[in-house]
Write a structure and sequence with these properties.
Blueprint (H helix, E strand, L loop, with lengths): L1 H17 L6 H7 L2 H16 L8 H19 L4 H22 L5 H26 L3 H7 L22 H15 L6 H17 L3 H15 L4 H18 L17 H10 L7 H5 L4 H6 L5 H8 L8 H5 L1 H5 L3 H33 L4 H20 L9 H14 L9
Helix pairs in contact: 1-3, 1-6, 4-18, 5-20, 6-8, 8-9, 8-10, 8-19, 8-20, 9-10, 9-11, 10-19, 18-19, 19-20
């Protein structure tokens, strides 16, 4: 259990911890998989101790079918074995954690400790966001992540906390805020945290994060807490209005840009909206590929798409494999075909319905609030996967699957 506590803190500050190591850029990049090593150790320790009491369930069965489909896709395709294992590990690592946590013994004290540790990490990142908002050079330098071998981060003009990219910071703020909002009782603290979460969600540069925060506040609090929402929204609008240079409104993932025709036309020709054009192209392939996909055959997918190179979005022309993963469900279709996306979609829907069933029999308001939070995050993730690779983003996926397991854990049904 202690290793999982450590992992909650470590993932929240991974890049900040590692930046101080006196190693080369290439070694630093390799150290970024340390959290995955932690996960493997957790899996092995629980498996060796016999502490995991796996029970058969529909979700277990559906996930096994999906893994079987992925193996068939790999065998029929041309993907390399290392590429297949790496990509499948990134996809399933936190889902495996979900099944482990939900099947181990956890008492009420340990359960509350998970939320306390997350709150401390969340509060620390809000504080760091406040410091970065002041835009003081030595503070920014102290907290910014190390470039590493990629050399692409220093020009991004967003609030990033201790992460390499603002979007990673934004998703951490979103997932933490949603999971913890039901546990913040006092009105003045709620107003302050709502204000900071909305403000830093916006300045993270991610439109989806900001919309996700607004959506959750309306979803959970509109009818009963209009004062909290009104006060927070007013303060956020004031801060944003006085802080943004409207002559360069596109610099902060502009929300206003969503309401312009130029934005949508640019997205269609060179951005993520244009990626949807390759969905009909997929069904021009042979029956085997339509059913099972290309697996993780980057060369095969690139060759297939580049047959119609001139009609591709610029994001795909630059690099088809990196570009296609910007729209998660489209990449999933290409990797695993109709069978794969339907089976994995069935797994996600099954988990979602399980959460809804549990919400109806939650024994306390706190439990109901926790279930409502993870249910919203699942809905949000399904929608968000149409515009980015949210299930691959560590700062969202780890916390979501871990706390989904805690919200639905059998200990929640044991009366104190």
């Amino acid at each position: 259990m202690n290793l999982i506590y450590v992992l909650i803190v470590y993932i929240a500050f991974e890049e900040f911890f590692l930046k101080w190591f006196p190693v080369s850029d290439s070694i630093y990049e390799n150290l970024l998989v340390t959290s995955d090593v932690f996960l493997l150790v957790i899996f092995l320790l629980y498996a060796a101790s016999g502490a995991i009491n796996f029970k058969s369930s529909v979700s277990n069965f559906i996930l096994m079918i999906f893994i079987f489909i992925s193996v068939i896709s790999f065998l029929l395709g041309q993907a390399s074995l290392p590429a297949y294992f790496v990509k499948m590990w990134v996809l399933l690592r936190y889902i495996f954690l979900y099944f482990i946590v939900i099947n181990i013994n956890i008492n009420k004290t340990s359960l509350d400790r998970f939320y306390t540790i997350l709150f401390l990490c969340f509060a620390a990142h809000l504080f760091i966001g406040c410091l970065q908002f002041l835009d003081i050079s030595f503070i920014n330098v102290f907290f910014e992540a190390r470039e590493g071998a990629s050399k692409i981060i220093l020009t991004e003009d967003t609030i990033k906390g201790t992460f390499k990219f603002g979007v990673f910071y934004g998703f951490f703020i979103l997932v933490s805020f949603v999971l913890l909002s039901g546990r913040i009782k006092k009105t003045h603290w709620r107003v302050l945290i709502y204000l900071l979460a909305l403000m830093f969600g916006y300045f993270s540069g991610s439109r989806m994060v900001f919309l996700g925060l607004v959506g959750f506040i309306l979803f959970t609090h509109y009818r009963k807490n209009k004062l909290i929402i009104g006060t927070s929204a007013g303060l956020v609008c004031l801060v944003i209005y006085t802080s943004v240079d409207f002559t360069s409104i596109g610099d902060i993932g502009s929300m206003l840009g969503l309401f312009t025709l130029d934005f949508w036309m640019a997205s269609l020709s060179s951005g993520r909206l244009g990626i949807f054009n390759i969905v009909p192209m997929f069904f021009d392939s042979d029956l085997k590929t339509i059913l099972f996909g290309f697996s993780y055959d980057g060369a095969g997918i690139t060759s297939f798409l580049y047959r119609d190179y001139d009609n591709l979005s610029a994001i795909l022309q630059n690099n088809a494999i990196i570009g296609i993963e910007d729209v998660y469900w489209v990449s999933f279709l290409y990797y695993f075909g109709i069978f794969g996306i339907v089976i994995f979609g069935g797994f996600v829907v099954n988990v979602l319905f399980r959460m809804k069933r549990i919400a109806k029999i939650a024994s306390t308001w706190e439990h109901y609030s926790d279930i409502k939070a993870v249910t919203y995050l699942m809905f949000f993730a399904i929608l968000c996967a149409f515009v980015n690779q949210i299930f691959f983003i560590k700062t969202f996926s780890f916390y979501f699957w871990l706390f989904a397991a805690l919200a639905t854990h059998p200990v929640r049904f044991v009366k104190s």
